[in-house]
Write a structure and sequence with these properties.
10 helices, about 325 residues, 2 strands, mainly alpha, two-stranded antiparallel sheet
């Protein structure tokens, strides 16, 4: 595959981020539900358009797409793998949204500054995940058996998540936050949307910067689940990277649009556990049992749909909104 393809996609991502921060959100403001929902539709729409382009790119082998040894796919398989990978990565971002909400609440980040934190957080996540994807692809290419390690890791993670008790996150106990406060001078107040401030002639990082570091660390931890999961869907590095990037780009708008609603979907987290387990098992048995891309997509959609349906049909009894008069 031509390096121009990779450079072109990265350039597209950077252009969209530049438009986001430099044009549509030049001044700090609180992002409301309707605006977030509109942007979420934009990102999902762009992912859908890209998926169609991907089909024709593999069909016509544009710029050498789909001709690399070990990653050649039919146009249908390429489009199916991208869609499945995108859905898996997007759904795995749900737990990340919960944690981000807790971090913002802990630091008391004003709504007008949350977009800026998430923007830089996602920019950092793109770099970190890009490195992890390249490393994972290199390991799989060099050591075929590493796919079984990834599969076992996902199954073990799924089992641990299934039996784990739901506990409230405590950012103040986070090792990274304590280390940041220990080695960097941290001010006790915000200075608008700035990450750095000057007090008495000395330079300090603001609580907003500490919040950003914590969000970056959280995403890195979640990436240890999501990156192996996407390699369970496809081995094509370009599809792995692009589906991951589109999911990350949608994460920010998902937070603003859905953070207040996700608490109602209490069975969605359990559904994600089964998604991880399915992908892990698929990786472990791929040598003996072939699970088609269509089957994988149907299973993922079925699990997520079941989690959402059960949440709506069996709402939590303590939900103050359930049964309220309208």
């Amino acid at each position: 595959m031509s390096p121009l393809v990779w450079a072109g996609f990265v350039g597209f991502i950077l252009l969209m981020l530049a438009l986001d921060l430099g044009v549509f959100n030049r001044t700090p403001k609180e992002v409301h539900f309707k605006e977030a929902l509109a942007w979420l539709c934009v990102w999902v729409g762009l992912a859908a358009v890209f998926n169609v382009l991907l089909y024709f790119a593999y069909q016509g082998q544009w710029f050498g797409i789909g001709t690399a040894a070990g990653s050649a796919l039919t146009p249908k398989d390429a489009a199916m793998e991208f869609l499945t990978g995108y859905l898996v990565e997007l759904s795995l971002s749900v737990d990340n949204i919960f944690v981000i909400a807790v971090i913002f609440k802990f630091f008391g980040v004003p709504g007008a500054y949350q977009h800026r934190v998430l923007f830089w957080g996602i920019l950092g996540a793109i770099v970190l995940r890009g490195v992890m994807i390249l490393l994972g692809a290199a390991l799989i290419k060099r050591f075929d058996w590493i796919i079984y390690v990834f599969g076992a890791f996902l199954v073990i993670t799924a089992v641990k998540m299934f039996f784990a008790k739901e506990e409230e996150a405590h950012p103040e106990k986070n090792v990274v936050m304590r280390l940041t406060r220990r080695f960097l001078p941290v001010s006790d107040r915000y200075d608008g949307s700035k990450f750095l401030t000057v007090i008495g002639g000395k330079r300090f990082v603001t609580p907003l910067f500490v919040c950003l570091v914590l969000i970056e660390t959280t995403d890195l931890i979640f990436a240890f689940d999501s990156i192996p999961a996407i390699f369970g869907i496809t081995r094509d590095p370009f599809i792995v990277f692009t589906s991951n990037m589109f999911a990350i780009l949608g994460l920010r708008t998902m937070y603003f649009g859905l953070s207040g609603l996700l608490a109602k979907f209490r069975y969605l987290s359990k559904a994600l556990v089964f998604v991880l387990a399915f992908v892990g098992v698929k990786m472990l048995i791929h040598e003996w049992v072939h699970i088609s891309n269509g089957t994988s997509l149907a299973v993922v959609l079925g699990m997520l749909g079941t989690g959402i349906a059960l949440s709506l049909l069996l709402p939590a009894k303590h939900d103050p909104h359930h049964g309220a008069a309208h």
